[in-house]
Design brief:
Elements (H helix, E strand, L loop, with lengths): L1 H6 L9 H11 L1 E3 L9 H4 L4 H8 L6 E3 L1 H24 L2 E10 L4 E10 L8 E9 L1 H6 L5 H14 L3 E8 L5 E7 L2 H16 L20
Parallel strand pairs: 5-6
Antiparallel strand pairs: 1-2, 3-4, 4-5, 6-7
Length: 220
């Protein structure tokens, strides 16, 4: 009996290090900088003019994406695939990954989903911005996060739709929150003014004015 018990017992550190290393090596890759001369909705959500300047003028440094970060990004991609299937089965999916563009200022992006929205006859179609968030952030949500609000306002104003929803899924327990957002032209005008201001700059802003996780803070 003692021999049988020993056979079925593994040490706590008895992991397959070859497989772990192989997966991480496969996933690690350099992150390509965004295209120069274009504003992207995700960057416009940043409070930092220095970061936005860097993005627009092609000064964002190429960075290595580690394996953990790549898995996080992939989870976000598969979240989108999952909700696409939900909306298809519900019979409300209109479009997914729809491109949105502005010539001046030059803005390029893709909205997550367009769905049929039948609760209010005014809003026959709604723009959906899908986000995942951890438990702590989810509990604190009483409205869309500011950068997500900016993103969905861009999509609403560039597509002409009047109504959007920022849909959050809790990473830890899959609970959801859905915040209504009406198109706001004043916000769009503010975004355009900021873009034009960045385009007219002849020098990079000296200081990072973003939040603690702003990419500017990682500059060497």
């Amino acid at each position: 009996m003692a021999g049988i018990k020993q056979i079925g017992t593994n040490r706590k550190d008895d992991q397959d290090k070859w497989l772990l290393k192989s997966i991480d090596t496969h996933l690690a890759s350099p992150q390509r900088p965004a295209r120069k001369g274009v504003f992207y909705p995700s960057a416009l959500g940043s409070l930092c003019d220095r970061y936005l300047y860097n993005c627009y003028f092609g000064l964002v440094q190429e960075q290595e994406i580690d394996a953990v970060t790549k898995r996080v990004f992939d989870c976000g991609d598969y979240l989108g695939y999952r909700y696409q299937k939900y909306f298809e089965r519900m019979g409300i999916l209109v479009a997914t990954e729809s491109p949105v563009k502005s010539e001046m200022p030059p803005i390029s992006g893709r909205l997550d989903f367009l769905i049929k929205h039948d609760q209010n006859s005014i809003y026959s179609v709604a723009v959906i911005e899908l986000k995942s968030i951890n438990q702590r952030g989810f509990k604190a949500l009483l409205k869309p996060k500011d950068d997500h609000y900016i993103q969905i306002q861009l999509y609403l104003n560039l597509t002409g739709y009047e109504y959007g929803i920022v849909l959050y899924e809790n990473k830890d327990d899959q609970k959801i929150k859905a915040f209504s957002v009406a198109k706001n032209e004043a916000t769009w005008n503010t975004i355009k003014e900021r873009c034009l201001k960045i385009m007219d700059m002849t020098e990079q802003p000296e200081k990072c004015t973003g939040l603690r996780y702003c990419p500017c803070r990682r500059e060497k």
